[in-house]
Design goal:
The protein is α/β, with parallel strands linked by helices and 236 residues long. It folds into two domains: 3-129, Rossmann fold; 132-231, Arc Repressor Mutant, subunit A (Orthogonal Bundle). 41% of the residues lie in helices and 22% in strands. It is built from nine helices and twelve strands. The chain has helices at 3-6, 18-30, 41-50, 67-77, 91-99, 112-126, 163-174, 182-190, 198-211; strands at residues 10-14, 34-38, 55-59, 82-87, 104-108, 137-140, 143-146, 151-154, 157-158, 179-181, 221-224, 228-231. Strands 2-1-3-4-5 form a five-stranded parallel beta sheet, with helices on both faces. It has a four-stranded antiparallel beta sheet with strand order 6-7-8-9, covered by helices on one side. Strands 10-12-11 form a three-stranded antiparallel beta sheet. 38% of the residues are buried. The model is unreliable at 1-6 and 129-133 (pLDDT under 50). GO terms for molecular function: phosphorelay response regulator activity; transcription cis-regulatory region binding.
Length: 236
């Protein structure tokens, strides 16, 4: 199976602007995706429950139930990848979306072609289990990461990780003791040659809340001041 085939899926596009919905739909369909459209948060949640998509493109500025609340409710029931659409200058909302578990974002006004590429990239990562690597497990004390199954457990309990959180954790655990700056992590984990480095900061914070005994005093993912982050656990 090719990477392109793996990266095609059902996409739910949520935006209250009919023109934006139509343009995004056409570009995603050209990329081979099956697309459904919702104009508000309530419709999006209903359509998600009726037929769960493989990925959601979600505008944060929605009438009624806003995009942040939609993202929060989606995360309560699913780890489906979410690509946010945010207006230029709405940094706080963008960071809030990432904190709620969104996987990626595109800033308006945006290139529909760039959005389609981002969707394909996120889907490819989230579907890596369709073409799994050789069986491999990373272990650090009570933390176990199964690369083939793309699952993680801490002290015997399953961890609920988004696609990006899993990829970031796997990358850091696979390179213990090595410091990476945010730009390097954006390139190696997100596949971005440029972008908002606060994305990395937010995902590191979320990972710490899930894998550290005390996220304020992390012992696994530590901060290297003036550089970035390093995995200091005993991964093997």
């Amino acid at each position: 199976m090719t990477n392109e085939a793996v990266a095609v899926g059902r996409v739910l596009v949520v935006d209250d602007d009919m023109t934006v919905r139509d343009v995004v739909r056409r570009y995603l369909e050209l990329a081979g995706h099956e697309v459904r459209l919702a104009g508000d948060g309530e419709a999006a949640l209903r359509m998600f429950a009726e037929q769960p998509p493989d990925l959601v493109v979600l505008d944060l500025m929605l009438p009624g139930i806003d995009g942040l609340e939609v993202c929060r409710r989606l995360r309560q029931r699913s780890a489906v990848p979410v690509v946010m659409l945010t207006a230029l200058g709405e940094e706080e909302d963008r960071i809030a979306g990432l904190q709620l578990g969104a996987d990626d974002y595109v800033t308006k006004p945006f290139s529909p072609r760039e959005l389609a590429l981002r969707v394909t990239s996120v889907l490819r990562r989230s579907r890596a289990t369709l073409a799994p690597p050789p069986a491999r497990t990373l272990v650090d004390g009570g933390l176990t990461v199964d690369l083939g199954a793309r699952g993680a457990r801490l002290d015997g309990a399953d961890l609920s990780l988004t696609t990006r959180e899993f990829d970031l954790l796997t990358f850091l655990m696979s390179n213990p003791g090595q410091a990476f700056d945010r730009a390097q992590l954006l390139e190696r984990v997100w596949g971005w040659e440029f972008g908002d480095q606060s994305t990395v900061t937010v995902h590191v914070r979320r990972l710490r809340e899930k894998i550290e005994k005390d996220s304020a005093r992390p012992t696994r993912i530590t901060t290297v001041w003036g550089v970035g982050y390093r995995y200091d656990g005993g991964a093997r």
